[in-house]
Amino acid sequence: MTDTRMTLPRTPSFRLDGRRALVAGASSGIGAAAAVALAEQGAEVWLAARRRDQLEALVAQMAAEGMRAHALILDIADVPATEATLAAMPAFDVLVNSAGTARHSPAIDTTPEDFDAVQGLNFRAAYFLTRTVARKLIAEGKPGSLINISSQMAHVGGIDRAVYAATKHAVEGMTKSMAIEWGPHSIRVNTIAPTFIRTELTAVTFANPERAAWIASKIKLPRVGEVQDLMGAVAFLASDAAAMITGTSLVVDGGWTAD
Question: For residue 104, what is the domain's CATH number?
């Protein structure tokens, strides 16, 4: 009798055992959550940020819970220093760039100083950090998953957010181009585009009743985002479960951009 049973497919692993991960902007908020998400899946994680005390306290807390975590004091806006630091280290299999800033104002009131500060970190630093990590992977002949934390504002516009939205649109553009260039090296490049997430950075916005009402009116789910809402997305894109995903944006926005 002929055996007609098929070989059942199996879900690729979400585990990250044996992989080295770098998380920039990791001392708080989304970056800290991303670092924990990767460590929970078995990755050895280097948390990079400028705030030494806060960063080292977080690393100690993670280590106390059995996670492999290290502090890396680094200002990614200083491109030469970042390149020198990473050149002295082995390649990272995973990058999550969560470093970012915002200086909101009506577009008509934007100052060159605010423009330069926001684009300098959100776009310029992100560009060269991603390039630096990819360059080392290519030199060592290793695959990788590079993730930039973008924003729903990379897909829409927003009140008082012309500069911020412009930088995030730029990150989406560089991600697509880098994914095309580095695909032959098995290096995947994607973004995660969150809605408003409760963090130190968004506290001022949520404290403004008019802005809070605007946010509530745009998110289709009956709540705003929390950092935990991004942790699964980070672990997924970093893992083999996302092995065929590159050059795209995983939008975690509660339906904001659906209409």
Answer: 3.40.50.720
